[in-house]
Amino acid sequence: MSASSTPSRPSSPSPLTPSAVVTRLRAAGCVFAEDEAELLITTARTPAELAAMVDRRAGGLPLEHVLGWAEFCELRIAVDPGVFVPRRRTEFLVRRAAALARPGAVVVDLCCGSGAVGAALAAALDGIELYAADIDPAAVRCARRNIAAVGGRAYAGDLFEPLPATLRGRVGVLAANVPYVPTGAVGLLPPEARDHEPLVALDGGADGLAVMRRVAAEAPHWLAPGGHLLVETSERQAPPAADAFARNGLVPRIAHSEDHDATVVIGTAPGGVRTAPGGGMGSEGDGHGVERPIRR
Fold first, then answer.
1. Looking at the record, which segments are called Disordered (predicted)?
2. Within 10 Å of residue 141's Cβ, how many Cβ atoms?
3. Mean pLDDT of 180-189
4. Do the beta carbons of residue 96 and residue 232 sit within 8 Å?
5. Whether the predicted pLDDT of 13 surpasses 60
6. Which residues does 77 contact at the CB level (< 8 Å), separation at least 6?
């Protein structure tokens, strides 16, 4: 066979240009296509990997699952496929918890998902003793990766059930990012959430507060005197959540951040030195949040 008749090899597909990535993402409905394209391009190690990542993102997979990580409190948190993606608004819960924690406190990240809240608190505070728990085994495996470097321990099980009994009465900060979407509203969530995140991390029961009520009922047995329970809710759900805290012996107050569009209900166990509402990080007038006590 002459050289002129030698079959040519199929050419490799051309690498995706940045503009081609943006165009593909925009066509798929990604609102922040330029920002996402930059993240995908800088994360991909090869042109083939970039093409596969763009395909997955254009197919509706959450960006964080495509990247394998989420940015949270200036940290890169590993997020495996199928694991709840930490929301930026939850950074407000971290700020409130960090303002209340004392050096060396026992901190529990309940309903931990990827362990983002616990990892962020460990980065913000010195010498805390960190524990995390979630009912989803995939989330716990992910959380272990995210908190291992700070000596944190993660357990699989329903709420408090898997935690070491030795923590009872010792917890200084209990951050519980419970599911709070009402069952009837789960179907209204963006497809990225309802199709790719576990239902157990989203569905909070008929009014969205079923899991929160269980946490509020059990938390006083685990909190140290003066310890704090913090949960994220919607602004509308905050008053009934605060009532549930009060019924279980906790002193409630509500913190809201316009910047984060986030609401956190804080319950303090009796017996310790109470932090004045608005004290510490995120106090009224600093642009990060306003706290108000519940008056009866």
1. 273-296
2. 16
3. 94
4. no
5. no
6. 69, 70, 71, 86, 114, 115, 116, 119, 146
**The pLDDT value given to residue 2:** 44
Contact 263, 238 (CB under 8 A): yes
**Residues 264-291 pLDDT 10s:** 999 999 986 544 444 333 333 333 466 6
Question: pLDDT > 70: what percent of the chain?
Answer: 87
| C-alpha–C-alpha distance, residues 249 and 269, integer Å | 7
Look at residue 6 and tell me whether its pLDDT is greater than 60.
Answer: no
- The secondary structure of residue 51, as a DSSP letter, is H
Q: Quick one: tokens of 276?
A: 């004045």
How far, in Å, CA of 228 to CA of 107, rounded?
10
Q: Which long-range contacts (CB under 8 A, 24 or more apart) does 237-241 make?
A: 237/180, 237/207, 237/208, 237/209, 237/263, 238/263, 238/265, 239/294, 240/207, 240/209, 241/209, 241/212, 241/216, 241/265
213 burial level (CB within 10 Å; 0-12, 13-18, 19+): buried
Q: Which two tokens stand for residue 199?
A: 């239902």
What size, in residues, is the chain? 296
pTM, entire model: 0.85
The burial class, CB within 10 Å (0-12 / 13-18 / 19+), for 92 is buried
Amino acid found at 271: G
pLDDT band at 103 (very low <50, low <70, confident <90, very high): confident
How much is the mean pLDDT over the chain?
89
CA triple 117-140-248, angle to 5 deg: 60
